[in-house]
């Protein structure tokens, strides 16, 4: 049986991946690696409507991968690189590429597959 902690981790990973499951959001994060940007800057850089950039930024903010901060009349968006790296690391653990061993040994004893 899967532990409550494993279930919670899977849900968090799923939410983070869902936020990234759109090409424009990945491109926004790529732009934000260079530093804080406004929605207007990002919409021009990606060649998309400002409303679409704002929509994608809202999803990234909700997932905790981006923060926003008001500077005068502008809103600046910043990538939360620690959270993005954590998401990457958790995906690696799930895939068995990195991190501690999971419950595979216990599962293998029960499941013949």
UniProtKB/TrEMBL annotation:
Residues in coiled coil: none
Entry superkingdom: Bacteria
A Gene Ontology molecular function term of the record: DNA binding
HTH arsR-type domain span: 5-99
SMART domains named among the record's database cross-references: HTH_ARSR
TM region positions: none
UniProt cross-references to Pfam families, sorted A to Z: HTH_5
Keywords recorded for this protein, A-Z: DNA-binding, Transcription, Transcription regulation
Family annotation (InterPro entries): ArsR-like_HTH (IPR011991), HTH_ArsR_DNA-bd_dom (IPR001845), Metal_resp_trans_reg (IPR051011), WH-like_DNA-bd_sf (IPR036388), WH_DNA-bd_sf (IPR036390)
Protein name per its UniProtKB record: HTH arsR-type domain-containing protein
Source species of the chain: uncultured Acidimicrobiales bacterium
């Amino acid at each position: 049986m899967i532990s409550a902690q494993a279930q919670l981790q899977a849900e968090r990973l799923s939410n983070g991946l869902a936020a990234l499951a759109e090409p424009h959001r990945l491109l926004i994060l790529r732009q934000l690696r260079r530093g804080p940007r406004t929605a207007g800057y990002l919409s021009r850089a990606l060649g998309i409507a400002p409303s679409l950039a704002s929509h994608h930024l809202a999803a990234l903010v909700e997932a905790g991968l981006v923060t926003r901060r008001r500077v005068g009349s502008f809103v600046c968006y910043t990538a939360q690189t620690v959270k993005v790296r954590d998401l990457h690391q958790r995906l690696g653990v799930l895939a068995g590429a990195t991190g501690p061993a999971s419950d595979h040994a216990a599962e293998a004893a029960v499941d013949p597959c």
